[in-house]
Records
---
Amino acid sequence: MATSNNILEINQEEFENYFETSKKPIILDFYSDECVPCEALAPKYEELANLFGDKILFLKIWRQKNRALAQKLGVFSSPTLIFYDINKNEVGKRLTGAIRKKDLIQQIKLLLGEEYVNQILASKPKQKREVDVIVLGGGPAGLTAGLYLGQAKLKTLVIDQDLPGGQVKITHMISNYPGTGEPISGWELAERMQKQVKEAGTEIISAVDVTKVQLNPKDHVVWIDDEIEIHSKAMILAMGSEPRKLNAIGEKEYSGKGISYCATCDGKYYENKDVVVIGGGNSAVEESLFLTKFVNSVTIVHQFDHLQANKTAQEEAFKNPKIKFIWNSEPRKFEKTPDGKMIVTIENVKTKEYSTIETDGVFVFVGYTPNLTLIKEELKKDQWGYVITNEEMATNIEGVYAVGDLRSKRFRQATIAVGEGTIAAMACEKYLSELKIKERELLGVQ
Ligand SMILES: Cc1cc2nc3c(=O)[nH]c(=O)nc-3n(C[C@H](O)[C@H](O)[C@H](O)COP(=O)(O)OP(=O)(O)OC[C@H]3O[C@@H](n4cnc5c(N)ncnc54)[C@H](O)[C@@H]3O)c2cc1C
């Protein structure tokens, strides 16, 4: 991995030396090879090292080759950033996973003071870039579009607010993606997809804040981290969807602190515990079955008196001794006891009676909502808020395509998203070449 003049690549012995002698605060970055979040962090780390390298010692250490130090410092994943002040006390929180620039800046403010950091950041010139196509969202739909556009030699940028891979990367195993031969972990499939996209020449910018989007025919604009302004003639919207919230009392407060929307991500924390699942569709039932690998019991709370999941999933759930059901009920309130148990107040929608369930954790699977909050322009949508396109994935705004889970349709799967990414990329290429011809004609160029 390349490092700039302001970042020192070191080993354990050198770290101990620098730690003893440095007169500056230190940031230590444990990285690994073949590590998607490390690759996403690298340009941000380098940019901030260039800005603050005279005041902070930016270090980088290869975790696999310096295991003893990693172990000593309690570092178990890459990347992990540790921050030491001038007195060599660790400050703030360690940053891991998909690290955003704003989190890194927040930590630097702890080392150098808010005023100084803001002053340096304000003096930095804003960047402006231009590409042929911006693909917003790097799930299977956006990555496939990026792959085809890269292979068509169009200057393409895939931008994701998280690491690329979308919902696939948080899916435990995928068994219906053709060509993998056998079930493949979602994380691995996502990694393979993004590698192939990069090899096709498409740039991926990930773990960034997309702060604004403007869809103006022939000049679409995306702002990243409030400082990079990117223009393109065509745009593919591929931001997928996110779990629908219940809007019950306490849901927001305990989200991530007892309430989860992802069994693959959080199931492991409930080994031999009791959990409640809210919902009764495919996701709720399939994820409940997955949770039974870890937990002692799953209580499914569903608003109707029957499940809406597919027949096979239903049959498996009914015969699983770990799964119980509470019918005709909806959650109204979430609370937490001082010893960390969740209390779920539910209402029986038929009798209107309230009751409570004490549990270790709650998983909510009540459907999805398209990620379109950034788009302020009048996109044509269906009654559920999903984007309506024609068969070429074109929306009602010129040069704007919509693909994958945010598109209006009956079924949502990775394989479908991939197909739509393909169509949009091909249609987009055609649109751009026709636009070029028109522009040349207008200019009178042969
Ligand atoms: C638990 C689970 C299991 C599944 N199992 C399967 C399966 O076995 N087989 C199958 O084919 N499908 C499966 N699916 C469905 C499949 O994952 C989705 O249909 C597919 O991922 C949709 O792809 P997408 O690219 O449209 O959206 P997503 O995968 O949702 O990707 C959207 C991307 O956009 C990014 N994004 C969101 N907002 C913004 C923004 N404002 N700016 C920039 N980036 C943004 C997100 O970070 C994300 O990376 C499963 C889904 C779930 C939840």
---
Amino acid sequence: MLIDSLEVDRLGSLTESSYGPYARALVKIVAEEGFHFRQSADAVKTAMTQGTEQQREAVQESMNRWWPEVILAYGPPERDGESDRPVVRWRLKTRGNEELRQKFLQRTVPLLTEWGVSIPDPKLRFDAESKTWDYTQPDWENFGRIPEDRKEFTDIYKNYLRYAVQHVDRDQPILPGRLWDALYGTRTRLPGSIPLTELLVS
Ligand SMILES: [Fe+2]
């Protein structure tokens, strides 16, 4: 429910992005995420209002685990000079991190509270004057630093990207099969492509 809510807004904002192929592809994906959100919100509501104590505890535990991650996932609030950044200037990115995070809070907090989920943030409160939510600021200093236990996956991901950049010809339209091949390696083997798994180095 939390991640789906995040994706509805974050990917939704990119349907207005200036990069057409991505913006167009996202329209369907965002509709799908909206469906996920409804379904998962319904599951949370059912567990909390009609479920057993064990089910309510499971929901609360998941909330405690994922809430800080989702707040973090939007990225730091905008700083001065944000509008000069190329991704903003070129309108690749259309909405600010804080604007999207506020949307998330506005949508999820009232629902979760109504269903009896306690939000694991003692600082969370709605400021009626500014009409925004106050919340505990994540450790932005360490934002983007990869925890040791996730480094291995990041290396694999970097190799995916390197492969994609090397093997997808920018002057040719990207065929879905080819992109898939570049990203995931082995589903299709087009002439001249090598499976990605061969590139995975430690
Ligand atoms: Fe989803």
